[in-house]
Amino acid sequence: MNRRFVAALACRNTGSRLYGKPLQKINDRDTILDQIIHAVRRFPIIDEIVLGISEGVANLPFIDVAHAHGVSYILGDPQDVLKRLIQCGRAGRATDVFRVTTECPWFAYDMLPGLWRAHVENGNDITVCDRLPEGLNFEIYTLDALERAHERGSSRDRSEFCSNYSRTHPEEFKAQVYLPPESWRRMDLRVTVDYPEDLIIAREIARQFADKMPLVGTDDIVRYLDSRTDLCALINPYVDPSPLWDVFSHQLEWTSHA
């Protein structure tokens, strides 16, 4: 079976804590969404990027982003994020979908090729990493797994919590959860942009590692944040130390040869 791996990036300009998170600048040139697109394009295993843009006038700027980067997009239901991911997959003729959230400027790049290989070779429905600093995780689904979760789940399962059905019904999916090296299992750290304080940290990381952008490594981010207790103090109140995928008992240690 030929596989086609499509990055589905759900975009919406909302947020009571910080408005328009994907379009916030992290340096003089790029927004968070620009940064994600630049990074994903460094991986030949990903065949296409599709933006899953929420309907509504406030989200029209994302169409301009799609045109500027020469990527495809769909327009879909504001609340049904899971459906938009599915629409992205269908628009890109995907067999499999790569998902990161568009308020997270970086993800665990080092792990992606190995997890994609394991996903295909093991015939998984879902392959994910977990226990990284919040914001660095990513998820790989077959398009069929997303469609099943949408069909069987509730409205909450279809919202921004769109992995909820998969996580709470492990018996319905063949899934593998890969755990990073011990030094990266730092759920006391946070690299997602949901609050103004998060944006301060993202901009500092982008400034510190300007020569490595867009692919700033997990080890670099962890070491830098450990050296900047002043920055970590800003976001300590927002840290969530809960693993996402612990419901799956089948958890594997990741190596560079995974």
| Fourth-tier CATH superfamily name | Spore Coat Polysaccharide Biosynthesis Protein SpsA, Chain A
- Overall pLDDT level: 93
What is the percent of helical residues? Answer: 25-40%
Total separate domains: 1
Q: What pattern of helices and strands is seen along the backbone?
A: EHEHEHEHEEHHEHHHE
Helical stretch count?
9
Beta content comes to 15-25%
N-to-C span:
21 Å
Largest sheet: 8 strands, mixed
Poorly predicted regions are: none
> What is the chains' assembly state?
single chain
In the sheet with the most strands, the strands line up as 3-2-1-4-6-5-7-8
Shape descriptor: globular
CATH topology annotation:
Spore Coat Polysaccharide Biosynthesis Protein SpsA, Chain A
Strand pairing plus helix content: what structural class?
alpha/beta
CA gyration radius, whole angstroms = 17 Å
Number of strands: 8
The CATH architecture category equals Alpha-Beta Complex
CATH class: Alpha Beta
Q: How would you portray this structure in words?
A:
The chain is globular. It has nine helices and eight strands. It starts with a strand and ends in a 5-residue tail after the last strand. The longest helix has 13 residues, at 196-208. The model has no long low-confidence stretch (mean pLDDT 93). Strands 3-2-1-4-6-5-7-8 form an eight-stranded mixed β-sheet, with helices on both faces. α3 (81-91) runs antiparallel to α5 (143-152) and α7 (196-208) runs antiparallel to α9. The chain has one domain: Alpha-Beta Complex (Spore Coat Polysaccharide Biosynthesis Protein SpsA, Chain A). The chain has 258 residues and is of the alpha/beta class. It has helices spanning 32-40, 61-69, 81-91, 112-121, 143-152, 164-168, 196-208, 218-227, 229-235; strands spanning 5-11, 48-54, 72-76, 96-99, 126-129, 139-142, 175-179, 251-253.
